[in-house]
Amino acid sequence: MEEGMEKTTLYAYISFIGSEDVDDFPIEVISERLGIEPTETWRIGDKVNTTNTRVRSFTCWKYGSETLETLDSQDVLRPILDAFNSKIDTINQLKRELNLHVHIEVVVTIIDGYTPGLVIYPEFSSFAAAIDAYIDIDMYVHPFNESEED
């Protein structure tokens, strides 16, 4: 690809959100018990961003990988596994105590048709199953660029 052209990227994150009627929970408890600082948190009622008045409808604790130019989902799932695989019991205790769900999300931005392999390896699927996590794959497909000839 030419310099300056965008490339397909992936990132992944794990998030803790309330289940059923739980809209809010003490996010600092998650950080303390896991010994991990989140990459992002928000509380119910926080503004979504500074440009509009929309507010968050639920509280969330989120830890994400870096966004990488890659076509291999393992590159962004591995950091999540490495950080959380030894904490399965703690995660399940937090889920029970605070009535939480855990979501694992893979976010794919496809540029010019460069489509990644979306493989969930057994080690990762075992981890996700052990914490009863949802796995969600979000895809954003940008249109193919036509060659620009003058």
Detailed description of the structure:
By secondary structure, the chain is an alpha+beta fold. Helices cover 26% and strands 25% of the residues. It is built from four helices and five strands, in the order βαββααβαβ. Strands 2-3-1-4-5 form a five-stranded mixed sheet. α4 links the parallel β4 and β5. The model has no long low-confidence stretch (mean pLDDT 90).
Task: Set down the secondary structure blueprint.
Blueprint: E1 9-18, H1 27-34, E2 40-42, E3 60-64, H2 74-84, H3 88-98, E4 100-110, H4 122-130, E5 134-141
Parallel strand pairs: 4-5
Antiparallel strand pairs: 1-3, 1-4, 2-3
Q: Span from first to last CA?
A: 20 Å
Strand order of the largest sheet: 2-3-1-4-5
The amount of helix comes to: 25-40%
Question: With helices defined by DSSP (H or I, 4 residues minimum), what is the helix count?
Answer: 4
Largest sheet: 5 strands, mixed
Low-confidence stretches: none
Order of helices and strands: EHEEHHEHE
Strand content: 15-25%
Basic shape: globular
* Mean pLDDT reading: 90
- What is the number of strand segments? 5
What is the SS-derived class?
alpha+beta
Q: Could you tell me the radius of gyration in angstroms?
A: 18 Å
How would you summarize this macromolecular structure in one to three sentences?
The chain is an alpha+beta fold and 150 residues long.
